[in-house]
Amino acid sequence: MLDYNPHQGKRGSVSDDPGHALHWLSRMSLTASVARILVSALVVTVTTFPALAQTSSPLSTPSQTPAAPPALQTSPAPEQQSIAPVVMPSATTVPPEYQVGEGDVLGITVYNMPELNRSVVVGSEGSVVLSYLPQPVTATGKTALQIGEEVASKLKQLQILIDPQVSVAVENVESKPVVVGGSVSRPQVLQEIRPLTLQQALMLAGGPASGSGSSVLVTRTNSNNNMVSYDLQLSKVLAGTDPKSNILIQPGDTIQVLPDQKVFVAGDVHNPGAFPLGSGQRLTISKLMALTGGWKSSAKPGKAVIVREGSNGQRQTVPVNLPKIMARKQPDITLEANDLLYVPDSTGKKVGLAAVKGIGGAVMLGTGYLIIRH
Fold first, then answer.
1. How far from chain centre, in Å, is Cα 67?
2. Which of 14, 170, 296, 310 is the most exposed place for a label (fewest CB within 10 A)?
């Protein structure tokens, strides 16, 4: 190889100067090493930058997307931090328009002032007494919202609180009782929280029980403060289509499903027992004898009696000559609900009428004797 030697002013062979040749080879080796390093760095740079671009791409890895700045956090006002949790009892669900009455239980909550919370009963004068108010608060005839507004107004007037927030809940209703009894599945006292029809009241009591009759008796106090009763047909009430039968219930009403009316036969007959009278039907002695299968050969049908309870509660006995009635020699007798027909036998065994406690109820028959439990 040839190289230019400035000292010689001409090109010469490398072998002309051995020292210079070694210096030149060293420089060439260093230059090659540097070149290799630069090439390696370039390769690394070329292969690394796409990888870095890939990991920072929001389309490929959303998790690497820079997080949005957190929303502004606000602390509650100091007066809100001290609110005590309000634990309300299991309140009766009443509509907002419900008007509070005597005996109702109210839960009064004053927010931010738990020491003023109360559970109070509406007294006989129609008001509630709160120890932090000098005068009772009238409650009857008002809604829970109206009572709360009045309590808040008084707290503000007395400067107990600047801006009181008062909530009133009806915890228990006791002022609208409706008694449902008689021949129903679950006799009970209802509270008329909402407008209630007679049909709905009967359904809440489980409906008519077995052995119920065909009538419903509703007793209430009218506007003149007199007690009046309405005898309604049960089937029409349950149908719910006749507003004259399915009437609206009023607080203080007493509802009774009358039991199926029966007449009772005891003594020396073939089939003693209780027989339904039937609604609007006429049951006579002659028909009753047909139902019982007639008297036995050992009976004394001419000495039969009807035991009947009068309107004054006194027990009456009516002699009956069964053979003459059956032969139409005497007028037939129409029986009334709870009548008892007793036919003695020829042995002289007869019912002890003094042992009869009353007419109606459970009847126990055996060997010609009758026990009626009032």
1. 50
2. 310
